[in-house]
Each structure stands twice: as C-alpha cells, then as structure tokens.
Design goal:
The protein is α+β, with helices and mostly antiparallel strands. It is built from four helices and six strands, in the order ββββαααββα. The chain has two domains: about 120 residues, Roll (Bacterial Protein-export protein SecB), CATH 3.10.420; about 45 residues. The strands form two sheets. A four-stranded antiparallel β-sheet has the order 1-4-3-2, with helices on one face. The longest helix is centred in the last third of the chain and has 28 residues.
C-alpha cells in the first residue's frame, strides 16, 4: 500500500509568553472520507493538539491518499477496541518531524513521537509513578533554628552525603601523602 499526506492548514499558537512545562497534549483527530474507488481512498484529516495545562495549540489538517488493494486499505482504516486506527498513526508519524521542529522553534514542548492510546496510557502511568516516588523521597531535616524544619529532596540529601564522603576521603589521602613525605 502507498500513501501520500498533504498539509493544507498548519497552525501553531502559543497562548501565553509564560513558559509552562507540561508533559502531554490532549489530541482530537477527525477523519472524513472524501472519495473512494477500488484502488484509492482519499481522506480529509484534522489533528488538534492542545497542551495540558493549556498554553499551546497545534492544528494540522489536509488530505491523505491511500492507494493499493481495497482489503489493505480497509484493514488500515479499521479501529479495533480502543486502539488508534493505522491510518491515524501513519498520518501522525509523517507529521511528527514538522511538529517537532516548529514546536522547538517556538520554545514549547514537542508532542509525543507516537499517538497510540497504549503509549498515552503508559506515559500517564509512568508520570503517576514518578509523582508518588517524588512524594516518598522528601525527607525532613532540621535547620539552624531548632523550631524550624525544611524539606530536602532525597536526591539532594544523597548528593550532600556523597560530597561529605568525597571531602573526607580527600582529606584522608592528603594526610597519608603528608605522612609518606615525612
């Protein structure tokens, strides 16, 4: 099967100058059959990506032409369970390099490299797991004032401990070198 993807409308909009770090886009995809015969199907597509939280909007629309055996084309258009149809993934993969370059130029996070619902759910699971781990990794440390406490992330605490160990090791080596010289 062969395919062509045409872009007729391309819009990137950064809704505020504030740089918000977000991890995902909410994606709305529309497909509409324009024409079809035994060897070719023309579909009109529209991809709307909205950042979450809302700071950026990407809209790309146009036509895709699928040519080949009718059975191949029908299989590519079929949607099974909650999975994304193959044609949507194909369109997204072709447009991803364009979205990546423009989003980086606009200084907004790039959309995910895949549109698959399975990947979106996996990313959400990983994000939740990281959030839980970050909450667990916060230790309470006393400050100079006996009545105040500050939270120090576990990674920073480990870094401080390693720095102290490295300084101690360095001092011991210097003492040994001084003893060797005497």
């Amino acid at each position: 099967m062969n395919h062509e993807i045409e872009v007729s409308n391309l819009m990137f909009n950064k809704t505020s100058k504030e740089e918000i770090n977000f991890k995902k886009y909410d994606i709305n995809v529309e497909l509409e059959e324009e024409s079809s015969n035994d060897q070719k199907t023309v579909l009109k597509y529209s991809l709307d990506l909205t950042s979450n939280p809302k700071n950026s909007v990407i809209n790309i629309s146009g036509n895709t032409i699928l040519s080949g055996e009718q059975e191949e084309i029908e299989e590519f258009l079929k949607q099974e369970d909650a999975k994304t149809p193959g044609v949507v993934s194909l369109i997204y993969q072709e447009l991803f390099p364009l979205m990546y370059i423009i989003s980086k130029n606009m200084k907004i996070p790039s959309p995910s490299h895949t549109i698959s619902q399975d990947n979106v759910q996996e990313i959400e699971k990983q994000d939740k797991k990281l959030d839980i781990e970050n909450k667990k990794s916060v230790d309470v440390q006393p400050t100079n004032n006996a009545n105040e406490e500050t939270e120090i992330p576990k990674e920073e605490k480990l870094s401080q401990e390693n720095e102290i160990k490295n300084e101690s090791t360095k001092e011991i080596k210097e003492e040994e070198n001084d003893e060797d010289k005497n």
